[in-house]
């Protein structure tokens, strides 16, 4: 929850609500992009690596940082917990959509 | 130093350790007690244990494990509130998985689920909002907890609920705020902390300016630190360098993530939705003024406390439980009578054993077999 997990933004699903999809270790997860848009347009974020906390992209990071952060999170067991939490969330959501 | 191999840059880690030794020798020349550095954030606690960082450092450097694990400092009365909310037949109670096993006075949320409450683990508050949208005949309550790192997520979720007119969603707000808590630690009479590692991801939201008082009024260095092992070593070196040079400043080791003024969009959402509470109760630390936030009147419709008239009983921690002493650094986890006996990660009695970021769980997992006492006869 506090350490977050890196992901790459691969799709914008709802520009008005600032929602997109991130690829997190091969898993697709909806993410809110409100905190990383800044001055630009939401579409500019496609391909960007971000640090994701509880479904919200909170900070842009570069690809090398993302890989290193993911390595450490995996060693700490936090990445596995985060991915498990995402699976729990998906299960809870069922057919419900963001 | 068997763990140095695991560092991203072992050579650099080696150089830092050498310099830390030299700085420590310089600092110790003028004093007769160890240098105590508090890592405020539970993420740092976890990293320090996982990589054996304390064992790499000179013995005169000690870590005090701070209160920065939001699951760990949640008081029992608030868990009881959650259970009560979850037991209401109309309620779908949604929570991060971390909070499921935190003991209440009678039940944890896991226990409530076993007794038939509709408790669902979600990854994001926006999962909970989606459930509210999909279940218009139910009341979806989200258990919001965490420091400033997760506050923007719940604030933005409430703003989204308002924008869409979703009335069957509410937040049970247990967010806590780090600055008054650090201040309370600095003001406590037996305070022996020489410097701080500041939390990385809280600071990503709030920036580094809010810490200025620590250097200005308390003359203690604080270095905002990343949580990778090399970040922690580098930050310890920065704290020691300040001490050796007689400086007390706020420095930012984690500037690749932490902007000086924080994240503008996050802070705007947090300020819009939340205001400081007069006080908030912490497990082990008692009540701390202005250390929690509540939902502003304008967003009362999404406030579970107002919607369900939550009682928030004040319930003391179990008598034998010494989480408070551990949190304040008065005892080490293994010195608690329950540690490793009736309190283990599988069956936690105290909150510090629940989360992997809690000091007791970290000692239990990484402290080595020597730290685990023999079962009581």
From TrEMBL, chain A:
It comes from the Bacteria. It holds the Pfam family HupF_HypC. GO terms for molecular function: carbon dioxide binding; iron ion binding. One of its GO terms (biological process) is protein maturation. Gene3D superfamilies: 2.30.30.140. PANTHER family: HYDROGENASE MATURATION FACTOR HYBG. Involved in the maturation of [NiFe] hydrogenases. Involved in the biosynthesis of the Fe(CN)(2)CO cofactor. Belongs to the HupF/HypC family. This is Hydrogenase maturation factor HypC.
From TrEMBL, chain B:
GO terms for molecular function: 4 iron, 4 sulfur cluster binding; carbon monoxide binding; iron ion binding. GO terms for biological process: protein maturation. NCBIfam families: hypD. Belongs to the HypD family. Pfam families: HypD. PANTHER family: HYDROGENASE MATURATION FACTOR HYPD, HYDROGENASE PROTEIN ASSEMBLY PROTEIN HYPD. The lineage of its organism: Bacteria, Pseudomonadati, Pseudomonadota, Alphaproteobacteria, Sphingomonadales. This is Hydrogenase maturation factor. Keywords: Iron, Metal-binding, Plasmid.
């Amino acid at each position: 929850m506090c350490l977050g997990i890196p992901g790459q933004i691969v799709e914008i699903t709802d520009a008005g609500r600032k929602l997109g999809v991130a690829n997190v270790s091969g898993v697709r997860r909806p993410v809110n992009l409100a905190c990383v848009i800044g001055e630009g347009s939401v579409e500019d974020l496609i391909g960007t690596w971000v640090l994701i906390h509880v479904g919200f992209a909170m900070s842009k990071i570069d690809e090398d940082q993302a890989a290193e952060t993911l390595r450490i999170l995996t060693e700490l067991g936090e990445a596995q917990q985060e991915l498990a939490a995402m699976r729990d969330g998906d299960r809870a959501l069922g057919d419900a959509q963001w | 130093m068997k763990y140095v191999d695991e560092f991203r840059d072992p050579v650099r880690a080696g150089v830092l350790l050498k310099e830390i030794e030299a700085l420590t020798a310089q600092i110790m020349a003028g004093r007769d007690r160890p240098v105590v550095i508090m890592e405020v954030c539970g993420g740092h606690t976890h990293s320090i244990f996982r990589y054996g960082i304390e064992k790499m450092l000179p013995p005169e450097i000690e870590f005090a494990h701070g209160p920065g694990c939001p699951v760990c400092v949640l008081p029992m009365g608030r868990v009881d509130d959650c259970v009560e909310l979850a037991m209401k037949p109309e309620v779908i109670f949604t929570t991060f998985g971390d909070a499921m096993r935190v003991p209440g006075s009678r039940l944890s949320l896991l226990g409530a689920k076993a007794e038939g409450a509709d408790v669902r683990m979600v990854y994001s508050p926006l999962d909970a909002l989606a459930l509210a949208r999909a279940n218009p005949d139910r009341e979806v309550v989200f258990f919001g907890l965490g420091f400033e790192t997760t506050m923007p997520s719940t604030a933005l979720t409430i703003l989204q609920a308002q924008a869409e007119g979703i009335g069957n969603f509410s937040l049970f707000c247990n967010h806590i705020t780090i600055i008054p808590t650090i201040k309370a630690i600095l003001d406590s009479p037996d305070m022996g902390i020489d410097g701080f590692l500041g939390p990385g991801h809280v600071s990503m939201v709030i920036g580094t300016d809010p810490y200025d008082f620590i250097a200005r009024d308390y003359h203690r260095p604080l270095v905002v630190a990343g949580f990778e092992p090399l970040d922690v070593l580098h930050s310890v070196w920065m704290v020691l360098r300040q001490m050796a040079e007689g400086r007390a400043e706020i420095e930012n080791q984690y500037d690749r993530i932490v902007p000086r003024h924080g994240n503008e969009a996050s802070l705007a959402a947090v300020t819009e939705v939340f205001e400081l509470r007069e006080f908030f109760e912490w497990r082990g630390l008692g009540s701390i003024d202005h250390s929690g936030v509540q939902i502003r009147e304008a967003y009362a419709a999404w406030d579970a406390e107002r919607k369900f008239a939550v009682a928030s009983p004040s319930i003391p921690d179990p008598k034998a439980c010494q989480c408070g002493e551990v949190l304040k650094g008065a005892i080490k986890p293994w010195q608690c009578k329950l540690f490793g006996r009736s309190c283990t990660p599988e069956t936690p009695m105290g909150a510090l054993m629940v989360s992997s970021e809690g000091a007791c769980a970290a000692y239990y997992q990484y402290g080595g077999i020597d730290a685990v006492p023999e079962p009581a006869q």
